[in-house]
From TrEMBL:
This is Tetraacyldisaccharide 4'-kinase. One of its GO terms (cellular component) is plasma membrane. The keyword Transport does not apply. GO terms for molecular function: ATP binding; lipid-A 4'-kinase activity. Pathway: Glycolipid biosynthesis; lipid IV(A) biosynthesis; lipid IV(A) from (3R)-3-hydroxytetradecanoyl-[acyl-carrier-protein] and UDP-N-acetyl-alpha-D-glucosamine: step 6/6. InterPro entries: LpxK, P-loop_NTPase. The gene is lpxK. It comes from Rubellimicrobium roseum. ATP binds at D53, A54, G55, G56, S57, G58, K59, T60. It comes from the Bacteria.
Length: 338
């Protein structure tokens, strides 16, 4: 379900004010859960890539880029994910035989780059990664999960949306209040173009004065694909499908139709048959995201083009310095994909 538009208004208007008491209860419950936790202290550093709000903010590309940075330092890194949308409770190491229905689309995507464990019990997942030889564990999400001690927490936020009206669910998009979350964070990574970054800084800069603030964006990965002028039917089931459509347009593709699905929505054969029939009628090529491609049935993968994106940060320095402090190898320079 798409979030209500008033979550991202300046104050949310009367719906946010009406739901404010429930938001206060939600934030209070989060605070109590965090305070009551008896977290597992891993034998290796644990780095959390999380967020303060519900919905897509870009955590998975940040996790992918961070894993590349750690691998470049010759550090054995493994990722632990809850496996949203997958039915396996785990801990289970994701392999090529798994499907998105079993382990979730994001772990399946990440597993092509780094060893990934799916575990509804995050502490059990971290233990499994340790036993498998990990020298550092990256949690993909889990900032509000108290079961594991985090040695470094990076908060990812979409610069265009920011933290919305600043209110907790259901009065706004927040899992917890901004001040409470940032008090436990080590850095904030905002993702978006220059205009969005400036708006984010103007709205939230005062809250970030005590934290490193890293600006970045997700850029298409050069693949040699001649996107310019290509007639496409673009579909996506991610947190913000419109961002994918905008990226595709920015490459010069002619989008003749778009179809937006819920985040992590299963792509059934019936849905894909309808998309394929519509694309044929329009004389268009089906195009989707990497995350959606992980949910395609095998017979469809050769018939759908994929637009991959990668994280670009203006300055990796604060992250590299934090990895140095954790004793995680030595920086070998910029990642080839940054």
């Amino acid at each position: 379900m798409a979030p209500p538009a008033w979550w991202y208004d300046a104050d949310g208007g009367w719906p946010a004010r009406l739901l404010a008491p429930l938001g206060a209860l939600y934030a209070g419950a989060t605070a109590q859960r965090l305070a009551r936790g008896a977290p597992y202290q891993a034998r290796v550093p644990v780095i959390c890539v999380g967020n303060l709000d519900a919905g897509g903010s870009g955590k998975t590309p940040v996790t992918m880029a961070l894993a590349e940075r750690l691998s470049a330092r010759s550090v054995a890194v493994q990722v632990v994910s809850r496996g949203h949308g997958g039915r396996l409770a785990g801990p289970v190491r994701v392999g090529p035989a798994h499907t998105a229905a079993e382990v979730g689309d994001e772990p399946l995507l990440l597993s092509a780059f780094v060893p990934v464990w799916v575990a509804k019990d995050r502490a059990a997942g971290v233990r499994a990664a340790e036993a498998d030889g990990a020298r550092v564990v990256v949690l993909d999400d889990g900032f509000q999960n108290p079961s594991v001690t985090k040695d470094l927490s990076l908060i990812v936020v979409d610069a265009a949306r920011g933290w919305g009206n600043g209110r907790p669910i259901p009065a706004g998009p927040l899992r917890e209040r901004v001040a409470a979350g940032l008090a436990r964070a080590d850095a904030v990574i905002s993702l978006g173009d220059a205009a969005a970054q400036d708006r984010f800084a103007a709205r939230w800069g005062a809250a970030l004065v005590s934290l490193p603030h890293l600006r970045g964006e997700l850029r298409p990965l050069p693949t040699g694909m001649p996107w310019a002028g290509l007639r496409t039917l673009a579909f996506a089931g991610i947190g913000q499908p419109e961002k994918f459509f905008a990226t595709l347009r920015g490459l010069g593709a002619e989008i003749v139709a778009t179809r937006a699905f819920d985040d992590h929505q299963p792509l059934s054969r019936a849905i894909l048959q309808r998309l394929e029939a519509e694309a044929a009628r329009l004389g268009a090529q089906l195009v989707t995201t990497e995350k959606d491609a992980a949910r395609l049935p095998p017979e469809m993968r050769s018939r759908v083009l994929v637009l991959p994106v990668r994280l670009h940060l203006e300055d990796w320095g604060p992250v590299e310095a934090a990895l140095d402090r954790l004793g995680l190898g030595q920086s070998q320079g910029a990642s080839i994909r940054s």
